[in-house]
């Protein structure tokens, strides 16, 4: 699409976004005239009550948990009943639909107006001559067998090393042995934890690394734009691939490709029953963790900036999209050279309600970026000596793998340390939604200059 077409599309979408937003506001004003401002306040109150109920459900047991669940479900239903009884059976859905349309058009306008980022560290990939792929048959519910990955990989000239389910294998040692025997590419069909271990060996020897989306969630594969529905397509990189570079995280000397979690989630992952009953284990553990019983608060230093008393802390290899901080989804890039830091501190039902209503503006949520993050238990942060501060250990989840590490736990980043070979055609490589900026939308709607003009 030409620059002129991009500019016309951006202006059209921006104008439609403003019209839809104005119509949504008009619908709200009509609702106020028809039903009075009290019903809007009741709607906000219902949202807060729902958040309080969710907090009670997660942080308590027994009758309080039952009451919390009833509030979390009943409050939205009560708000809907109020809207219908107040004559808003049409205006409320119409306002929501208009506002959703405004947001969609606004993001489309910003995406059309945005100058594309240069493809940093991307070059044609040279087909490997002695690729070695490590595959876990149990990963992802048996995707290795279901998609015939072994047969397809061997047909393309790769040597496949199969892990034995139910037995412990030193994956890093397996990868090092493959390098010693002449491998010129290392790849993994398995979970992100296994990916990270082999990626560390590939980076150490400056070898290309191949990601095969045969895990359960495949977070790294998603952010690389790989096909997660058919992992066999990842093998196309062996014959028609391109190479890019990505950052590699380091936590206490151990590599990570996605995230390091501290606090509530890390404590839950430590439990042996978690793998077989994730939801039940979490519900059983959360009351102790959130109410301060078994759960320790965390203090962190992010490039020297204090982040204190957190219940949960997520450090990621490059920050996740800030479009919705409570829905950690995708990372717009993997070579930005910075860690993402997301901290949550909720001290009670009132703060839970505030977080639900205000989202990223709530003081319960901390979002920032950093090149070095140091984490320790809050109780150890005030120790009189460095020896006392370093004696404590805390639970840590590294790419979903449960560990216990001595504090302080230091997270850093090795910029562009990992060479990644990916297929030339990556169906999941979608353009990330830009951050919403209504001032820019207004400028685009009125702008008659060429594409990419800046106010």
Walk me through the structure:
This protein is α+β, with helices and mostly antiparallel strands and 455 residues long. It is 41% helix and 22% strand. Strands 1, 2, 3, 4, 5, 6, 7, 9, 10, 14 and 17 form an 11-stranded mixed sheet that branches. A 6-stranded antiparallel sheet has the order 13-12-11-8-15-16. α1 (3-35) packs across α15 and α4 crosses α15 (438-446).
Overview in brief:
The protein is α+β, with helices and mostly antiparallel strands and 455 residues long.
Work out the helix count: 15
- Helix-strand category: alpha+beta
Largest sheet: 11 strands, mixed
> What would the average pLDDT be, to the nearest integer?
78
Low-confidence segments, given as residue ranges, are 272-286, 323-327, 380-391, 450-455
The helical percent reads 40-55%
User: How much of the sequence is in beta strands?
Assistant: 15-25%
Instruction: Please tell me how large the radius of gyration is.
Output: 25 Å
- Alpha-carbon distance between the termini? 24 Å
Which geometry do the CA atoms define? Answer: globular
How many extended strands?
17
